[in-house]
Amino acid sequence: MPTELLFRDDAYLKSCTATVIASGDRGFEVDRTVFYPAGGGQPGDTGKLRRADGSPARIVDTRKGDAPDRVLHLLSEGEPLPAPGERVELELDWERRHAHMRIHTCLHVLSCVVVAPVTGGNIAADRGRLDFDIDMRQLDAARIEREVNALIARAVDTETVWITDEELEARPDLVKTMSVKPPRGAGRVRLLRIEGIDLQPCGGTHVRNIAEIGPVKVLRIRNEGRRNRRVEIGFG
After folding, report:
1. What's the pLDDT at 236?
2. Same structural domain, 59 and 121
3. Claim to verify: residue 213 and residue 117 sit in the same structural domain
4. What's the number of domains the chain is made of?
5. What is the reported pLDDT for 43?
């Protein structure tokens, strides 16, 4: 039984009720969740579990389960796990998640300012980075910062769209990342559209309007190997 991924349709949901469908040494799975599992450079969500008797527990990480669209919620060490069939409430650490959404969306904008294949990336609550296969001499921190903030100031809405596997195969230009390929085999692929700015496959969580990112700064640019030029950004 797959987990219903509520964050795919509404990344602003902060909590939900759910039924436990599996429980084991590593954590528990539920039939529906607002928690994003680590992937694509975005960390797994943290938050709280509240059982039917009102007792709370700390969710310290969220990961992908052993089967497609299964999500594993990990509790603090020593916490008793809920049993299959138990009704529970899940609540996000919202400020942390929202910061991830802002940074993740900003990296989409950054990828449109630095036009080069993306070889890696990572997201944290206060900063994020992309690695590019590009000549170091083409990376000017002041220009990148200025152009990223100019795009953010346009206050464009974001939109989730879906295309078929076949449509993606016909549009290889949509895939910017060399290290992480969009999942295929389910018949359709999820894309993030920022009208007039960006369109690319992405399964992460994003803000509704890029103005929500706020001003950002280029923290540093450095050489990380033969094909990796790292651009790190943070909130201004």
Report:
1. 81
2. no
3. yes
4. 2
5. 97
- pLDDT for res 164: 83
Cα–Cα distance for residue pair 107/111, rounded to 1 Å: 6
Residues 6+ apart with CB under 8 A from 104: 42, 123, 128, 202, 204, 205, 206
User: Within this chain, do residues 107 and 84 fall inside the same structural domain, yes or no?
Assistant: no
Q: Which residue numbers in the chain have pLDDT < 50?
A: 185
Instruction: Give per-residue pLDDT as tens, 160-197.
Output: 998 888 888 778 777 777 555 655 546 788 899 999 99
Question: How far apart, in whole angstroms, are the C-alpha atoms of residue 26 and residue 30?
Answer: 14
Domain extent, residue 227, equals 98-235
Q: How many CB atoms lie within 10 A of CB 223?
A: 10
Q: Given its phi and psi angles, is residue 108 left (phi above 0), alpha (psi -120 to 50 degrees) or beta?
A: alpha
**Residue 187: exposed, middle, or buried by beta-carbon count in 10 A (0-12, 13-18, 19+)?**
exposed
**pLDDT on residue 176:** 75
Three-state SS at 200: strand
**C-beta separation of 182 from 169 below 8 A:** no
Per the domain annotation, does 5 fall within a domain? no
* DSSP state letter for 42: B
The pLDDT assigned to 25 comes to 82
SS3 at position 111: helix
Nearest residue to 133 (alpha-carbon basis) of 120, 122, 119: 119
